[in-house]
Amino acid sequence: MTMPRQPSEDRQLSPALMSLSLLQVLAVLWRRKAIVVVCLMLALSAAIVTNGVITPRYTATASVIVEPRQQKVIEIESVISNLPVSLEMMQSEVQVIKSSTVARRVVDGLGLATLVEFNPALQPAEESLAGEVKSMVKGLFAPVIAWLRDEPAERSGIALAQMPRGWDLPEEEARRNWGETRIVGRFLTNLDVAIQGSSRVIAVSYTTSDPLLSQQVANAVAEEYLQDQVRLKTEALVGANTFLGGRIEELRAQVEVTERAVEEFRKTTPIISENDSELLAEQIFAMDRKQIEAGLELDTINERLLRLRAAMEARGDTAAFDGVASMVIDELRLEEMRLRQEESELLSTLLPKHPKVVSLRSQLDKRRQQMLEEAGRLLANQRNEKQIAQRRLASIRTSMSELQKDATALNGAQIQIRALQREAEATREVFESFLARYKETSQFDDELAQSRILSLASIPTVPSFPKTRLNYAIALVLGCGIGGIIILLLELSVPGFRDPDELRKATGLPVLAVIPRVASRKVVGAGLSRFLAEEPNSSFAEAHKGIYAALRVDRRTLDLGSVLLVTSSVPNEGKSIFSRSLCGALAAGGLKVLRIDCDLRASDEEPRLGVSDYILADYSLDQVVQTEKDSTLSVIAPGTRVNDPLTVLRAPKLAKFIEAASRQYDLVCLDAPPVLAVSDAATLAELADQTLIVVRWKRTPRRFVLATLQHLHRTRAHLSGVVMTQAKLTPNAKSNPYMVGYADRRFQKYY
Known about the structure:
By secondary structure, the chain is α/β, with parallel strands linked by helices. The chain has 24 helices and 12 strands. Helices cover 58% and strands 10% of the residues.
């Protein structure tokens, strides 16, 4: 037993248009071109009506350039500086042009409040269906809105504006302000101000229904913008002059007060000149040197006295000789030394009490006493010198202190007078600066704005709205787009397969043939035999012959028998017509063919003896098999209706008969019921060598075909392929290799 054919790995259920190529998509669009044409005509008609109904509006544009450089006769920028040219500044200037202040001046200057286009109050009241509906809706929702706002429902905008408040206006003025606000709002609605790219040019555009009015308003807005800049400078200059004039008088009085204070201070202070301070500084310097010298002298005397006292405390009064420098003491020392020498000589020969020794010692004592007296006198002189040095140093310090006091007083006076002088000079400088600025601003009369009009608006000759060409282009695109969407939806709504390639990819089975659609009268009843006989080489017949050729290749390759099961997923797919056509076309070609109608439940064959009678009622084959005249085609009808067709289909007698028939006939075709309807086809698949599934073009749902494959795979049926029936041959078929032979006129000579 051969293994059943398995579906290929690329089997998938593609969405509607996913498997279509570009040429096929274009072919679909061409086939349904009527839809595109209708949508296109409707869209163009709507565009024509729209362009004809809408009131044309004209846009005039004036250009203003912001100048970064200005002529500087005087430094007027110190009063009001020019704006730096930057993106933020340009955007700010755009907002200035679009401000309500500029708009109100233009409206007043051109008298636009008298035009209906700007003043809705001048428009006559016309009752319309839209207005009535709008009023009715407002009336219905007025209580809800009033409840949400916690206000009475009957109050309107004017009524709310007229409610008494502390800052309330009279009724007439309130109504006038309300109307002006609405007029300015309408004016600004049609004003468009934009920066031209990254330049310093601002385009001022205005749109109205009158081209002349559009030009006038655009130019008026540009000129008003320049006048606004001039007005701003003028107001700034007037304010600056007023401020400077008042400030100058104040500064003049302050200058007089400060200068008077300097003079009065000079009168009350005796010496405060620069020479005085220099002389005093020299005196202080000289006195400081004297103080240093006196201090050094005193330190020297103190040091000498300290050494002398330390020596006397250590060695006695004789130590005073070391600290005293005197010629008298030096002579007495020499005399003492001579006497001592004599004493030593005498003592070497005489006794200590010898009169000469005693007399010599008396002279030594006398000389020592003289030296002590001289040292005391000199020490007293040292003390006197110390006292003199101390008194001198004290006197110098006293003089130094007085000089420092004088210097401090002089410095304070100089600091005070300098402060007064600086204050006077600063006040005078401010006064002179304000005076110079006042003279400049009072003489300045510049009416040049920082911006200038680059080009005035011209009268537009072509309406800016509606844009006729753009509307037609939009209508063209919209019509084609809507038509394409409709075609897409129609194609997506197709439940079945459009072409054999899509069917092959979804099932994984080869598509043996695509049976073209023919008139129903040619394939119903006796018309089928007559059609095959009259046109044996038609594309319809050749398609069936090609199926048999493909089945023979499969049969030889896998060594299969000649029993073929023909089934479908659901009824009304042309399965029975296909089996009759296949058998008839093959019989016309000289093959022995047996067709057994196994649909025991709902066959459209004429009631006669058939399979059920042969199996259950023991009728002979001669009574059951019907052979057509002058043909090799034999047919067995379903026979008498039975309650359980499976008792017939599962009977061993039927299996033996089919096996015997396969040896006598070139093809035994079993016409089985739909797979998804009943289980008869699954039972018959066990008796067949090959199974062929019939799929109707565009009608058989994809999910049904896949479900049929699953059922047959469970029975291990050998699926030889699928056949697409009732295909409509359109120009699109020329691009399909399965259908090109039937659709291309160049192949017609073969049929």
